[in-house]
Structure formats: C-alpha cells, structure tokens
Specification:
52% of the residues lie in helices and 4% in strands. By secondary structure, it is mainly alpha-helical.
Length: 226
Amino acid sequence: MTTSAVPLPFPVRFYDPKIQAPDSRGRTLTSILAWPDDRLEHSHDYIQILFPLPERSPFNFSAPVIDEQTFSQFRSKSELRDRLRDSFVRLLHFYGFELAPQVSAAEASDGKCRVNLGVDFPHASRNWVTRFDHNHLRITRIIRSCRILGLDDEAQAFHAALWRVNTERPGVIGQKSFMFWARAAHRPLFLAPEDEGDEGRHGEDFLYRYEEGRQVAAAIPQGVDS
C-alpha cells in the first residue's frame, strides 16, 4: 500500500519557479509583478499572497499563512528566496526605493544589502509618505514576511531606508507606523508586531523553537565545538 505525498503548501508552489502555481483568482507571481503601480495601489488582495505571514489576515480570510513546512522550504531553497526577492524589489520600486547593487569587494563580503531612494521617490512617495496610509500596513507585512522567509538582510535594509525618510522628512509619517515597522524588523519572529508585551510565549511553536535555537547558538563562543 502506497501513501500519497503531502502536498506542498501554497506559498511554496506559488514561488517555486518550476511550478508557478496560480492563486485562487488565477494570478501567478509573474503576472502580479508585471502589474503597473496603479493596480498595485488599488488592489488589496495580492499583498497577502506575495508576503504571507504566520498570522491570519483580518482583511483576506483566504490568504495563505506560513506554516512550519513553508518556513523550512524557503529557508532551505535559494530559488524560493530569489523569487521572493523579486517581489521585494518590485514593491521597493512601487514605494520609490531601489535595492542597491553591491559595487565593492567590501560590500560583497559583508553579505549585507542596501536600500536607497530611487529616482522616482518624489512621485512614488506621494502614495504613502503621510501620517497614516494603508501602505503602512503593507510595509509592516513585507518586513515581517521577508524576515521569516529568509530575507532578513533585505528586511533590515528596508527598515533602515524608512528611518532615513523620517530623518529627511521628520514628523510626516506617524510614529505608530514607525513603531510597528521597528517591531516587525527587530522582534523575535514568534512575536507579531501587533502583540503587546515582549515576554511570555507567543505565536507559532516552530518560530519559538527557531528563536530558541538562535539564542543557544549565539551563546556558544566562536571556535568551541558543540
């Protein structure tokens, strides 16, 4: 007697370049990334597809969530992260940023990436550089999703770029939005930005175990075999 293989989670099938599974509305990753900015602004049910979270969306109940298998697949397969990076870069452009190329040996060796203001920033920023806008919720989602799925450097670079906007245009964006962006960028992964309080056990067990493992690894002195 044979048992059927466990199907891959939707986010994996959607991002896998060999599968390219469409969502429930027949949209593939390639088709969404080709949308013009106006459609990205006024469509509200794609951001949860491009950047899933472990938490259920209160705005799109059918949106996929990150489970343990999705988490493991993205962190072990560079081709999934590469396609996720394509989504990240597309949304950066939408907001007026660009992912800077590594132009020096030092930049290439440190493994870090940088997000800069793009040439279209003055125009693109009109949509979201304001006290509060629905795009602020999207930005929180993008940062958290990228961190969980293995693009932590990109998420941190985006967060740093947002702070530079605040430095150049202080007081325009509400501080509550910056608070949520900081939580998405720096909290342990098992803590969602909207969770109040940093103590106690929250969120998915697999994310708690992941953060626990990171703490243990960080406590081991370099050069010491475990």
